[in-house]
Amino acid sequence: MPAVSSRGRGRRTISEINMVPFIDVMLVLLIIFMVTAPLITPSMIAVPKVGNAKMAKQPKNPLLIQIHKDEAIDIKRTAKGDATPSSVRAVAADIVQMEPAVKAEGEEAVPVVISADKSINYETVVKVMGALQEAGVARVGLSVQPGK
Question: What pLDDT is stored for residue 86 in this prediction?
Fold first, then answer.
């Protein structure tokens, strides 16, 4: 039976929700999450360092894709040094248009080297690599600096 208030002339029912049990449950859940969160360890990935790996021989006259901090993309021929601006969606078509030999098989294929700033999203580099793969570019590499 609802609670009744007998103040005033008539009798009215009080139709308020009791929030105390809801707050109690939320506080208990908060405590449980605070206690269990430090116990969950994130998975670690052991990435090899460039200094320990055997450095490959640099290819002759590769096409260079530069991805800048603002995710602007430039395509450069290393021999000539001229930079052509591009975008993530059009980079594969621009590469194939500049140098059709990138689609050749084996050693005669012109290599494409991606040089990206370390502060950009990994997703941008993967999108560029995926676009190159879909376009049929045979040789794609990543430019790195030798480290410790």
Answer: 86
